[in-house]
Design a protein that fits this description.
The chain is of the alpha/beta class and 210 residues long. It folds into 2 domains: 2-119, 3-Layer(aba) Sandwich (Rossmann fold); 133-198, Winged helix-like DNA-binding domain superfamily/Winged helix DNA-binding domain (Arc Repressor Mutant, subunit A), CATH 1.10.10. It is built from 9 helices and 7 strands. It has helices at residues 11-24, 36-42, 62-72, 87-97, 108-119, 144-154, 159-166, 170-184, 189-198, and strands at residues 2-7, 27-33, 49-52, 77-82, 100-103, 133-134, 137-138. The strands form 2 sheets. It has a 5-stranded parallel beta sheet, with helices on both faces. Strands 6-7 form a two-stranded antiparallel ribbon. Strand 1, helix 1 and strand 2 (27-33) form a beta-alpha-beta unit. The protein is elongated, with a radius of gyration of 19 Å. The relative contact order is 0.12. The mean pLDDT is 95. This is Stage 0 sporulation protein A homolog.
């Protein structure tokens, strides 16, 4: 049986995934946690598979924990399971924090298929993160540069600080944000920010360390 750790902050989803894994018969849950950092502390070389949520209890980053676990135990297979459609989550998972990534809105049958493929050594990642509604438009209508600007804006950087980071003008930062507001039919930038956070397009509050 595959020695498995499940990390899921939402207790309802945690129970659902645990029941599906146990019903399958091929998995033995050796740990179920809401906090990724707690799972990290309890992981050892006997663990073969980790299903890792991204935004876990206490805002602890599942991606950060997964990266450290992979360094300590390179043979463990880590499948990131998330509802966050933030493109940065997919990018970080691809660059060494995980073996595969699965979005929670796909269904359990597909999840089990991704688990089997991951255990067989395959890396299973979507080509792009799903697009979400942003009032009158979809998130994929915003350019990667606009999403980067929005991310830094949500984190509280000034226009000049964003401009310096991205090598553009302060005027260019303002234009990008105003264009997003116009495309989405938002009343103002605050409404744009609120929708991006509510629809999980942006996650900016995860803690990398305890």
């Amino acid at each position: 049986m595959i020695q498995t750790i499940l990390v899921e902050d939402d207790l309802y989803i945690q129970k659902y995934f645990a029941e599906r894994l146990e019903a399958n018969g091929g998995f033995r849950l050796v740990g179920v946690y809401r906090d990724a950092f707690e799972a990290e502390r309890h992981c050892d070389r006997t663990v073969q598979l980790i299903l890792m949520d991204v935004q876990t209890q206490h805002k602890h980053s599942g991606l950060a924990a997964a990266g450290r676990i992979k360094q300590a135990f390179p043979n463990v297979k880590i499948l990131v399971v998330t509802s966050l459609v933030d493109p940065e989550v997919l990018a970080k998972a691809r660059t060494g924090a995980a073996d595969s990534l699965w979005y929670k809105d796909h269904g359990t049958a597909e999840l089990l298929d991704v688990i089997r493929r991951t255990l067989a050594g395959e890396h299973v990642f979507p080509d792009i993160s799903p697009a979400v509604e942003m009032e009158d438009t979809m998130s994929d209508q915003f350019s990667p540069r606009q999403l980067s600007i929005l991310r830094w804006y949500i984190r509280g950087l000034t226009y000049q600080e964003i401009a310096d980071k991205l090598g553009i003008t302060k005027r260019g930062v303002r234009w990008a944000l105003d264009d997003m507001v116009e495309k989405g039919g938002f009343e103002n930038r605050e409404a744009l920010v609120a929708t991006a956070i509510e629809n999980k397009l942006m996650v900016t509050t995860l803690k990398e360390e305890a």
